[in-house]
Every structure is written in C-alpha cells, then in structure tokens.
Amino acid sequence: MMEDNDNDDGLVAGEGFFLGQEFASYNEFEDRRLAFQENTYCLFVMRRSERSQNNILKFNKMQFECKQAMSTRPARGKKPHHESYKIGCEARIHVAATTAGRLKVTAFHDVHNHPCNETTYFGYPEVQRMF
Ligand SMILES: [Zn+2]
Predict the structure, then answer these.
(1) CA torsion angle for 59, 11, 109, 50 (degrees, to 10)?
(2) How many helices (H) and strands (E) does the chain have?
(3) Where exactly are the structural domains of the chain?
(4) What is the pLDDT of residues 20-63, one digit of tens each?
(5) Which of 21, 31, 39, 95 is deepest in the core (most CB within 10 A)?
(6) CATH topology assigned to domain 21-70+86-129
(7) Residue 9: half-sphere exposure toward Cβ, Cα within 13 Å
(8) What does pTM read for this prediction?
C-alpha cells in the first residue's frame, strides 16, 4: 500500500513524534524516543508489548506510558469505594508494526499533568541505569 502523507507540520527532526510516523527499525524508534526523553526530561516506560519474530522491528506492539502514569496511587484505606481515584499522567506513545514491516506511531500524547524537569528525570532509576 502506498502512503504519501505530507507531514510538514514544522516538526524538527529529532524532536518528538507524530501520529502515523514510521520507523524502519526498533533501533531507529528507540534512538528517537531516548532523544525525545532527554529533550523533554520526561521518562516513558514500556507498559505493554508484544514481541515480533522480526529481528529488526523486535516488537509487533509497544505501549509506552509516562513514568508518572501510575505513581499517584491513593494511600491505602482512603476512599475505598472510589474507583476512579487514579490521577496518573496520561502521556503515552503507542507503536505498532505495519504489514510493510515498519513501526508506526498509533498514539501519541505528550501533555503531562505534572512538571517534567532535569532533577526528577535524572533521579529515575531507569535513567540512571542508562549511564
Ligand atoms: Zn507525565
């Protein structure tokens, strides 16, 4: 299938993602994701994934969520009947493999409900492991 989308929305290469964006390999996607994290100081962690037999793509599906998505759980014992109490950040990046053998961004939401800063970012154990 041929797709010819003009995505000239003023996005600078190396900055962020956009819906429908495609990557030729897992490494290409990861490079972009890591650069994006370092530019924004927001850590995305993989919450769900589906392995691929394709060694270049590595995954059929990846769902990244902001590190803060799950970190605001209510204290135990408080408001036990209130189920929608989770106030997690909803920033996320979802990627899925296409039939053409590329990784495509299927969801991208980069609005955070909390500040992202250098101090917090480099305090994450996931980030410290990268260095
Ligand atoms: Zn966030």
Answers:
(1) 0
(2) 3, 5
(3) 21-70+86-129
(4) 999 999 999 999 999 999 999 999 999 999 999 999 999 999 99
(5) 95
(6) N-terminal domain of TfIIb (2.20.25)
(7) 9
(8) 0.75
